[in-house]
Amino acid sequence: MNIERQNLSVGGIDVEVVRKPIKNLHLGVYPPSGRVRVAVPPSVNDEAIRLAVVTRMGWIKRQRNKFEEQARQSARAYVSGETHYYFGVPYRMRLVRKSGGSMVSVAGDRIELSVPANADRDFRERAFQRWQRDRLRERVEPLVGHWSETLGVQRPKAGIKRMRTKWGSCNPIGGRVWINLEMAKKPPACLDYLVCHELAHFIERSHGDRFIALLDRYLPNWRTLRDELNREPLAHEEWSAGLA
Questions:
Q1: Which domain of life is it from (predicted)?
Q2: Within this chain, do residues 128 and 63 fall inside the same structural domain, yes or no?
């Protein structure tokens, strides 16, 4: 797929422009900073893009204001007393230093992180994120199987990685779906929506009417789940949602 990218300034707002083989213009505003992205067919010129952005400037500003008000987590030190989200539920962390390797367990309203006595902050983060990755994969694999069968597409391979601009991504040609590690913090229903969203792209690559019709048919409450995901507390890092 031929994709061209450029940046335009419209009314003091930086706009990311993506030209690719699609039929219609699609404009989106993404958290946390209100990044504006316009996807257009290759034939659409810069003036048409500027007009589309100016026409929807009021909506863009309202979306940006909502993101500014969204809750954000402080930087994590992975020490006792911190709150960490695990599939949408807040838990208090208890840090235990002992000999041996690292381990994470959940009991009641606590997440216990056990690490060697000399483990620094980066070691604790890596240990905790390995655990998050494993738990997320356990949930992703059945969902990929379910939605592959439901949508009638060949089951792709699923990977977990940290992404700075999207909750998930896919490569239909390569048969691969990627899920943002941050989804280990989000409610299970939002993860279900995300996997459905990405696998629907194996049928329709754009976010056009056909794609929306697929979500409406197979996951009628997808808009509610999308909005819930976008309202979830953002990590200290600059994450943003790249979903329709």
A1: Bacteria
A2: no
